[in-house]
Design brief:
This protein has about 260 residues and is of the alpha/beta class. The protein contains 7 helices and 7 strands, in the order βββαβαβαααβαβα.
Length: about 260
Amino acid sequence: MTPNTVQIRTPWLITEQVPNIRARLFCFPYAGGGASVYRLWQQYLPHDIQICALQPPGRESRISEAPYNDVQKLVSAIVPEITAFLDHPFAFFGHSTGALVAFELTRALRRARLPLPGTLMVSGSRPPHIPEPHPIHHLPEPEFLDGLRRFAGTPEELLQNKEIMALYAPILRADLALEETYVHEDETLLNIPVAAVGGDRDSETPPHILEEWKSHTSGDFTMKLFTGDHFYLRDGFPELIAYISGRIAQTETVC
């Protein structure tokens, strides 16, 4: 693989310079998250795998932009922004809502006859054909905050801070709407490997639900559980990254 001679830039992806890229790992954040969710991952990956972390509008470096609340519109906006990055073997990893975005983006790339990920890794997410049973994005503020506590992803001190939540709640509502208003439409099954990963104590996506991702590919399907709840990846990401690195090594020839 020859060294990169041009540093490609787009506000949609946060990357670090990798001199000799062998493969790319596109990472899609969970609801309310941004590219910084994956800021430590690069140092745990092999030196020739480049992290490309999605930075959706409405947060972090794009805080002044309106967030998307529709998966198909979001995916349509992403496709032209990442096309130039598909010149190496690559994999997708998405957690929770990010898994749904990664799945629909894979299907959009296929419709556009663009390269597909060598492996699609979906984490802590119900499969597309199983709707969210308890949507909260539309609820009044008190009920909405109670709903967020269910995920145990937002610290209580933030939930109690009215000034912070006045800024953060609209982002969360939009991101949750991506998943909660999503309607799955059947297409030909993906023919790439799909790996479903999650926490063994995740009450939002228990193993028997996570396993249903197998119905969305005609290719290889595997499931791997790690110790933890819905946000198992926060503390256990080195072990997770070791697993991801192995998946990329197995499938990087698919481009």
